[in-house]
Amino acid sequence: MITLIYVSKAAEFMRRIAVINQKGGVGKTTTAVTLAWGLSSKGKKVLLLDMDAQGNVATCLGINPDKTMYHVLVERRSWKDCITKINDNLHVIPSNETLEKAEILLAGEPSRETLLRRLLDPVAGYDYIIADCPPSLGLLNQNALLFADEAIIPVSTEHLGVQALKKMLLAIESLNEVFRHHIRVTAIVPTMYDRRNKTCVDSIRLIRQAYDGVVTEPIRINSKLKEAPASGKPILAYAKSSNGAKDYELLVTRFMGKSKSYT
What we know:
Blueprint: E1 15-19, H1 28-41, E2 46-50, H2 56-61, H3 69-73, E3 84-85, E4 90-93, H4 102-105, H5 115-119, E5 128-132, H6 139-147, E6 150-156, H7 159-179, E7 184-191, H8 198-211, H9 223-231, H10 235-238, H11 243-256
Parallel strand pairs: 1-5, 1-6, 2-4, 2-5, 6-7
Antiparallel strand pairs: 3-4
Helix pairs in contact: 1-11
């Protein structure tokens, strides 16, 4: 069932967003980093969380942090002590390979699925908190989803991507039911789109037919998007005039305004 929920542009609250898909290679980190950067460049205060042990957020932003999400979740360091400041409006709690130990070390803890929510409950002063999630349905992703109020699902425009989207939506519905949570899917972002490719065209048609209202304009396949991480800059700073930058600017604008959701 599709429920349309409108979020007022003027509403004064902090939006907590998980960028998630259990399928890898669909543009989750690019989407999370670019959205965070774009919103911050428009004057919004943004905290970006990296929940993935691959640490790609740090790579995309050209930083080499001392404190990471591991220190928050496992060592219980204050979130303030683990922030890397990118600019006045964009702060990051990055990750690296040490986060791989977290799922094992936290496995025996009571209420381990809501640890992130409890540890970050004191966070204030931001307009958005955006979590970049790993390609799995493990403990770290459960923590991210139970912390967030909204989910963005990047989905590659090919057959396997469409199937992964269906599974991801079912997983979110199951989590909501089991934990009596109510995270809303406010954007399905088609990625790696090539209008010359029949599979891409067919895939985006199927996605729009099934989830009309929350499907964004597609992110076109673009070489600049692949080059940007090596520069340590998001696409909006690396190649402002590229198709990739233009497509993500539309996504940023969407999240500056009103949103609908699929539930």
